[in-house]
Design a protein that fits this description.
alpha+beta, about 500 residues, about 25% strand, about 15% helix
Length: about 500
């Protein structure tokens, strides 16, 4: 489809779309203009580090804290802060609800080995607006409602077990041990066309600042700017990967298949995807094919790791192109709202807020290579998508939207380190802020235990489970301009 015809299609849908330089319609998660403007605007904040993520790590002169290890989604702008919160201190965060798909704040938990796990968080829709303002993420409100300001607080201590005992608009660090530095992440997904990565400031506004303003309340005084930064010992640091190269290479050498492990053997077809539980079970445990042995050695508890968003369920497949030129995935797309082009309303029957798939490296790097998100995925009449991941030279001629297929660049495999296998990588799928009423949600997948060690992902997700197979470029192209992917097996319980 040409740029002109795509713009015409968007206009027919009732959304006026502005074309940006290089002819892009900004259908991608972040346009080049959004990336460059956001990167230029937000490098010098006294509290927040500059924008982090796959889109920003490729910019010339990117700082170490912008590298996309552990943050491989291409349509996002993350702002991260590391600091020490005094025992009696309260962080005050004043911002505006952005014109975007989703945002949240998370104070990550600290896990052994320097890993960052699931912590306390608050999501846009849960944040009560300031007096006189409106929360545009409330499905009963217009997405462009105004005024739209809010205030969020961060305090030390464990979050109350009873949600009714929580302070309004408050995040808890999870500990009173102030020697543990706080890792606070401000996540922004898919800004509307015409806004920067925060979703708060139009691209053509000269002096806009969309970052929340942060101050510290301590012993009855309010501190801002450099004084606040000095008290907090705030710093802008890079994130550590999920494993050392030495430990990872040792696992590979001692594995069942040093060429392709921990990718599952083809006898697993089509059940390659499993829910991410934590770094040990889902990372190191993936080298153990016996489910019982795996869960005994590495508990599948939901502690998280890799600075994962606790509001997101991740489905992950390790892929080896030594097993085939293409990795082909088919599943039903969960219901979601389209927002990129300034739609005014939310769908009240959404099953989740955001879905995306990214190719990326393994634990020693955590790098991301390419991303496709829900709005740009072509769907068939039944709401299913077909995704083909490969190296560019192996991309089939019919792996294009006009044929109902989305192509994803496999990228540089495990990552950029000595000994990395460029033919082994991972495919991440994000199911973000899922609805409690969605029965087939990956959030409902039961935790593997020694008593019930077998993963039950496909059984619970049914038609939403991402079935996958390896194929050759030739075989896929033989399927023609309307390729229909079939599997000998279906998810358990699916008709």
């Amino acid at each position: 489809m040409t740029t002109a015809s795509l713009a015409d299609e968007v206009t027919k849908q009732g959304v006026q779309n502005k074309l940006f330089p290089e002819g892009t319609t900004a259908r991608t998660g972040l346009s080049r203009q959004q990336i460059e403007v956001t990167n230029k605007r937000y490098q010098n904040d006294p509290f927040w580090a500059g924008p982090k993520g796959l889109a920003y790590s490729s910019i010339l002169g990117a700082q170490p804290y912008q590298v996309a290890n552990l943050y491989p989604d291409e349509g996002t702008s993350y702002f991260v802060a590391w600091f020490d919160l005094p025992k009696n201190g309260k962080l005050i965060i004043k911002g505006e609800y952005g014109h975007l798909r989703y945002f949240s704040y998370t104070a990550a938990s600290h896990l052994p080995g320097g890993q960052l796990g699931n912590g306390d968080f608050i999501v846009d829709r849960e944040i009560q607006p300031d007096p006189g303002s409106v929360n545009p993420f409330d499905p009963d409100n217009s997405r462009d409602a105004s005024p739209r300001s809010y205030t969020v607080y961060l305090i030390n201590g464990e979050a109350p077990e009873d949600i009714n005992d929580r302070e309004p608009n408050t995040i808890y660090t999870g500990t009173d041990i102030i020697e543990n530095p706080v890792h606070l992440a401000f996540r922004n997904y898919i800004p509307d066309v015409g806004y920067d990565g925060t979703g708060c400031v139009p691209l053509d506004e000269l002096d806009g600042n969309g970052l929340p303003e942060v101050s510290l309340e301590l012993d009855g005084e309010i501190f801002t700017g450099k004084a606040m930064r000095d008290i907090l010992h705030a710093e802008k640091r890079a994130q550590i990967p999920g494993s050392t190269v030495k430990d990872w290479v040792k696992k590979i050498r001692n594995s069942y298949n040093p060429e392709s492990a921990p990718s599952l053997p083809e006898t697993s077809e089509p059940y390659y995807f499993q829910r991410f539980w934590n770094t040990n079970y889902s990372g190191f445990g993936a080298f153990i094919l016996n489910p019982e042995e795996r869960v005994i050695r590495y508990s599948a508890d939901p502690t998280g790791g890799l600075a994962a968003n606790p509001d997101t369920v991740y489905m992950i497949a390790t892929v080896s192109l030594a097993r085939g030129e293409l990795f082909v995935v088919r599943a039903k797309m969960p219901q979601h709202s389209n927002t990129k082009h300034g739609e005014k309303t939310w769908n009240k029957d959404d099953q989740l807020r955001y879905w995306s798939a990214s190719s990326g490296g393994t634990l020693p790097s955590g790098w991301g290579w390419d991303t496709v998100y829900d709005e740009e995925m072509p769907l068939d009449d039944d709401g299913y998508f077909t995704l083909v991941m490969s190296w560019p030279d192996d991309r089939p001629a019919n792996a294009r939207p006009e044929c109902g297929v989305k192509w994803l660049d496999f990228g540089s495999g495990e990552g950029r380190y000595v000994g990395a296998r460029n033919w082994v990588g991972q495919l991440y799928m994000r199911y973000q802020h899922v609805s409690e009423t969605w029965g087939e949600s990956p959030a409902n997948i039961p935790q593997p235990t020694p008593k019930h060690p077998k993963p039950m992902d496909a059984e619970f997700m049914k038609e939403y489970y991402p079935l996958a197979k390896y194929m050759s470029k030739k075989d896929f192209e033989m399927l023609g301009d309307n390729p229909i992917i079939t599997f000998d097996k279906k998810p358990l319980g699916a008709e």
